[in-house]
Write a structure and sequence with these properties.
Blueprint (H helix, E strand, L loop, with lengths): L3 E10 L10 H8 L5 E2 L5 E5 L6 H21 L3 E3 L16 H16 L4 E7 L3 H11 L3 H8 L4 E2 L2 E2 L5 H6 L14 H13 L13 E3 L5 E8 L5 H22 L9 H14 L5 E2 L6 E2 L1 H19 L2 H14 L2 H12 L2 H13 L4
Antiparallel strand pairs: 1-3, 1-4, 1-5, 2-3, 5-9, 6-7, 8-9, 10-11
Helix pairs in contact: 1-2, 2-8, 4-8, 5-9, 5-10, 8-10, 8-11, 10-11, 12-13
Length: 360
């Protein structure tokens, strides 16, 4: 069975005001050798799970990672929050190091404003050739994952009118977004070399495709999701991504060609997913026509169902999809919280408790 790992980026905030706090260096120092990583801005911190094959174990890994960040954040006067953008206004602080300094010089205001928290899912592949075949065959399905994970409705103190405004901010970067069909591992690597060789990017780790071959692990890395409010949602996403990878690999081995959907249409599908989340129309992954969100989600489920059954994940995914469609993603939860809490600080406080699993 293919192994799965998840990386989550969490926002660091003031427990009372909800304002982001530049405490990443201090949080990581407090954690010692426990595997917390820096990110582009000092107001965020990242952790990664170990590779696992069972979704129950993955959930425990995610809960462990969130709890560790929450504990360490508390020691430096902050809370950890699983939301993909800050609801309150912020002027984020650049993390130290030559790489981040290079990014800030190169991308200017785009880099200065970039404070977003994502969720990346890694799924093992047998070779680069299999991995690129998978990339070519999952690209039309990725916007549905953006819609399901959407958890960033607020930006700089106001409602963005997007469910995933993180996806819009992130896609300002020149290498981010959907890709053309590659056709082979050689063509994929040639494209990456050409992009780095252009001088626009510093290295191949800055090739921010929606899905890519990992530069560090023998995995396909899917990068379209917001960090999700509840730990159950990244588990659902991971099961679906593994199902997509396995289904795509089977199609490749059977000689079935990938859909030839244009990158232009995929950009529209990605935009629509970020705009609507699960509260408006999405583009159907096959027809690229607007359909109700539940129809697009069920199409994704239908695509991967046999792989889910084979992995023992079918019941988990069916229950997860039903719950998400009924209760809503993080974007809907945050907007509902604004109505009940009364202000954006209350939204952040509630989400921090939810991230750390502290009951109201």
């Amino acid at each position: 069975m293919r192994s799965v790992g998840v990386e989550e980026e969490l926002l660091l905030a003031d427990a009372a005001t909800g304002e982001p706090l530049a405490r990443s260096t201090a949080v990581r120092a407090a954690a010692g050798q426990r595997g917390l990583e820096s990110e582009f801005k000092e107001e965020q911190v990242e952790f990664a799970t170990k590779p696992v094959t069972e979704m129950g174990e993955l959930r425990e890994e995610i809960l462990r990672g969130r709890a560790e960040v929450a504990r360490r954040a508390a020691t430096v006067g902050a809370v950890a929050v699983a939301i993909a953008t800050s609801p309150l206004p912020v002027r984020p602080s650049l993390s130290p190091g030559p790489r981040y300094a290079w990014v800030a010089r190169q991308f200017g205001l785009t880099a200065e404003e970039q404070l977003t928290c994502g969720c990346h899912v890694h799924v093992s592949v047998d070779s680069d050739e299999e991995g690129v075949a998978v990339l070519d065959r999952i690209r039309t399905w990725l916007p549905v994952l953006t819609a399901m994970s959407a958890n960033s409705p607020f930006w700089q103190g106001q409602d963005s009118r997007y469910a995933s405004y993180r996806s819009r901010v992130w896609n300002r970067l020149p290498s981010a977004g959907p890709t053309d069909l590659f056709g082979s591992a050689d063509r994929y690597h040639a494209e990456v070399r050409a992009m780095v060789g252009s001088g626009v990017l510093r290295d191949d780790a800055m090739v921010y495709f929606d899905a890519r071959l990992s530069a560090s692990y023998p995995t396909v890395e899917v990068r379209v999701a917001d960090v999700c409010l509840d730990a159950s949602t990244p588990v659902l996403l991971a099961a679906l991504v593994r199902g997509l990878v396995e289904s795509a690999a089977r199609c490749w081995r059977a000689g079935a060609p990938p859909a030839r959907t244009s990158t232009g249409l995929l950009r529209l599908a990605s935009w629509q997913a970020g705009r609507s989340g699960l509260d408006g129309p999405l583009l159907h992954p096959a027809s690229m026509q607007r359909v109700p969100p539940g129809e697009a989600v069920q199409a994704l489920y239908g695509r991967v169902r046999q792989a889910l059954v084979d992995h023992g994940d079918d019941a988990l995914v069916r229950a997860g999809i039903a719950g998400l469609l009924e209760s809503g993603n993080g974007a809907r939860v945050q907007r509902n919280l604004l109505r009940t809490e009364g202000d954006l600080a209350g939204v952040v406080r509630h989400c921090a408790r939810r991230t750390a699993r502290v009951p109201d």
